[in-house]
Design a protein that fits this description.
Chain lengths: 436, 312
């Protein structure tokens, strides 16, 4: 990661544009309101287009022109992607859209608006906040609150555990396998892919926990970003539990304006496809992310079609609902993990190699790597599973970190700190979602 | 509310302090009672390596130099102090510490072909720190760690468990003989079998990328050379065989600096083309290691007749 001070100007540019756009939208009437909104959206999307998608587009145009015998002379831009650009741009856009819709009053205080975009715990990787949830909190006075501080610290501790003990530990195995996918057997690739599913979950939800925890300590309540996504029983449910701030952003500002599901079936499927393709592109300017998005769109459409076909059959099977739920969780996890292959692979070629080697069941021995690394990873994953299982199926029944006995809580905090010290990976690994 | 906060904080600190001290003390105890493996090797290197010939370097040193072959050829006691995943920073710190209690006659330093590359070097710098944190009470090692990473040193002072980060499983496993593992032979750890084919090597050759050079690693190598010269030690710098030599390697730089300091340099990087002698693309298996050590020892023997006479 590099620090380029001049890039702060990009943030400054969008803040100034959206601050004035918000106020002008509020003051103006119909046509001018729309013009101001479009101006703000063009400015925000324009910044994204230049910094994130220009070279990708140029690459693809060059390829297409070359295919028909023309040479593209448009130069490439030697620029770095500013950290967290996609996150704060989307947050800024949600402000002007909400002001336009009349759900949010335009912010008169420039400093408060700048804080809305730049609030440091969630600046680089979300949660992508909505002005209705957070703006009024910036106006309120905050005092030291013991309960907020404790719950914030507890969230941070759990977030650090997920990041340095699970995500970074799993990354050691995943990177070794995914950097040379052609060298590994199907069973190794399957394990590495499952590990990546947990790596990316713990990496990103760990960051979210830390961000929400820091904000909570200061008295601010940010929105929940993850709700145990791997216990989802369908792809639709997965997206209501995974990166909630982004999926609801797309729902509110793209899917519903496109017509959502209140249209013809064909249009509905088209809407789903468009939303997931754009969601894929939001993650990165690469065909890998486009395929990842397309896969999720296909899953969702297939799920809709399947549920229509089986509606009559499944409704009466309530006795078997638990068994069915279990299988649905496994199927959903498998499909999500299959899509993660395209998210993680270093290239399209590598991604297809992984998929081919898994589906043709490439023979070979199981790669263990470091026994102790695998041991730490499996132990930490077991702890995560146990915790989330209790939270999901027996909420409030038992918790060490939230235990009613003070001494149990404090021993649990200390144990978690010791686990982090003994089993954490401290090699300055960045959060995966910082690149978006 | 303030009283409640302070009480809670103090209780947490007290519990953390007790847990950390108890676990840290036990791990420290187990660490220094190891009888095999990496941790035993490092303790041996820093306290007990009193052989005439010492071999230093990374995993390529550890798995490539059959100590007993040297001993037979040059008739001097030999020990291999190489360690997995370490680089010139680790070798330099170990060498400096050895000199505080022993004056070896010969040092063979195995350098990785891309020893000065940033990705292979800088990442491993921290691994030098992690490998030597349990010895942070040795003044010279403390100084070396502080030069690389002060925060690790501070953390290890605050938390007794921190120096044993990522080591607990291996420590307990080795101590109670729960983990399988080859025992070393005078420090040398043989690798058995072969995991690569010619096709693998040819495919990977196309993926080799140029990596930036880290000047700090070059400086450390120069410091190593100066230290050997200052202590009048017979130093041989060797690049052992590799199956996948990057065209962007540091060999020319290593050769130039070694020869400028008046030491002998041996480049064996491309001398073995039979891939069945490699365990993986960077490590020889026991057959390859025996062949290579034989060749190097017979070459080094030529340097010794006069020296041996003067020693005897």
């Amino acid at each position: 990661m590099f620090f380029v001070p001049v890039y702060i100007l990009i943030l400054g540019f969008t803040i100034i544009v959206d601050y004035f756009a918000g106020n002008l939208i509020e003051k103006s009437r119909e046509r001018r309101r729309k013009q101001m909104l479009i101006l703000s959206l063009v400015a925000n999307i324009g910044v994204l287009a230049v910094f994130k998608y220009y070279n990708f587009l140029n690459d693809n145009i060059s390829y297409l022109l070359g295919y028909i015998g023309f040479h593209n002379h448009i130069p490439y831009l030697s620029i770095l992607l500013p950290i967290g650009l996609s996150f704060h741009t989307f947050q800024a856009m949600s402000y002007t859209i909400e002001v336009y819709r009349g759900n949010q009053k335009a912010e008169k205080h420039f400093g408060i608006y700048a804080l809305y975009v730049m609030f440091y715990p969630q600046l680089v990787a979300g949660p992508i906040e909505r002005p209705q949830n957070i703006m009024h909190q910036y106006h309120a006075k905050h005092y030291f609150d013991y309960d907020d501080v404790v719950s914030g610290l507890r969230l941070m501790l759990w977030g650090y555990f997920k990041k340095v003990v699970i995500a970074d530990r799993l990354a050691i195995y995943v990177n070794t396998v995914y950097n040379h996918p052609d060298k590994h057997s199907a069973i190794t690739l399957v394990v590495a892919t499952i590990f990546f599913s947990f790596q990316i979950y713990c990496d990103f939800s760990g960051y979210s926990d830390i961000a929400i925890g820091i904000a909570r300590i200061m008295g601010y309540k940010l929105m929940t970003n993850f709700k145990r996504p791997y216990f989802a029983t369908s792809i639709k449910e997965f997206w209501s539990r995974w990166h909630i701030s982004l999926s609801t952003w797309f729902r509110d500002y793209l899917y519903i304006p496109l017509g959502g599901n209140r249209t013809s079936a064909a249009r509905w499927y088209f809407n789903i496809f468009i939303v997931f393709l754009i969601s894929g592109l939001w993650h990165g300017a690469s065909w890998l992310f486009v395929i990842w998005g397309a896969l999720h769109a296909t899953y969702q459409i297939a799920e809709v079609l399947f549920s229509r076909l089986t509606r009559g059959y499944t409704s009466g099977l309530w006795i078997f609902s638990k068994i069915l739920s279990f299988f649905n969780i496994i199927i959903t996890f498998t499909l999500v993990s299959l899509a993660w292959i395209f998210f993680r692979a270093n290239s399209l070629n590598d991604a297809f190699k992984v998929v081919t080697n898994i589906f043709t069941w490439k023979k070979g021995s199981f790669f263990i790597g470091s026994v102790s690394n695998l041991f730490y990873a499996v132990m930490a994953l077991s702890l995560l599973f146990l915790t989330e299982y209790i939270q999901e199926f027996h909420p409030g029944s038992f918790s060490l970190l939230n235990n009613k006995y003070k001494i149990t809580r404090h021993v649990s905090y200390a144990a978690l700190v010791i686990i982090i010290l003994l089993a954490g990976v401290f090699n300055n690994t960045q959060f995966i979602y910082f690149q978006f | 509310m303030l009283k409640k906060s302070i009480e809670s904080l103090l209780l947490f600190i007290l519990i953390l302090f007790i847990c950390d001290r108890l676990i840290g003390y036990k791990l420290h105890d187990i660490y220094f009672k190891q009888k095999k493996g990496d941790f035993y090797q490092t303790t041996y290197a820093l306290k007990n390596a009193k052989e005439d010939v010492l071999i230093l370097g990374s995993s390529r040193a550890l798995h490539h130099y059959v100590s007993s072959i040297f001993q037979n050829y040059i008739n001097m006691s030999t020990y291999n102090l190489g360690r997995d995943g370490r680089n010139i920073s680790y070798a330099y710190t170990v060498f400096s510490q050895v000199l505080t209690y022993h004056h070896p006659r010969v040092i063979i330093l195995d350098m990785q072909p891309d020893e000065f590359s940033l990705s292979d070097g800088k990442e491993s710098d921290n691994s030098m720190v992690y490998a030597l944190l349990p010895y942070a009470n040795y003044p010279l090692i403390k100084k070396s760690i502080a030069k690389e990473n002060t925060s690790d040193l501070i953390l290890s002072k605050i938390f007794w468990t921190y120096p044993y980060n990522s080591m607990a499983v291996q420590l307990v496993g080795n101590y109670y003989n729960l983990l399988p593992g080859e025992k070393d032979i005078q420090g040398f750890e043989p690798l058995k079998g072969s995991k690569i084919t010619k096709a693998d090597i040819l495919r990977d050759k196309g993926k080799l990328k140029k990596k930036p050079i880290d000047p700090a690693l070059i400086n450390t190598f120069q410091d190593f050379l100066k230290l050997a010269k200052k202590n009048n030690i017979e130093l041989y710098v060797v690049i052992s065989p590799t199956a996948n030599l990057s065209p962007y390697n540091s060999i020319a730089e290593i050769k130039k600096l070694t020869q400028q300091s008046g030491f002998k340099f041996y480049d064996y990087s491309t001398t073995i083309n039979d891939y069945s002698l490699f365990y993986d693309d960077t490590h020889l298996n026991i057959k390859g290691a025996t062949l290579f050590t034989d060749a190097l020892a017979s070459e080094l023997k030529k340097n010794f007749p006069n020296k041996l006479a003067s020693i005897q």
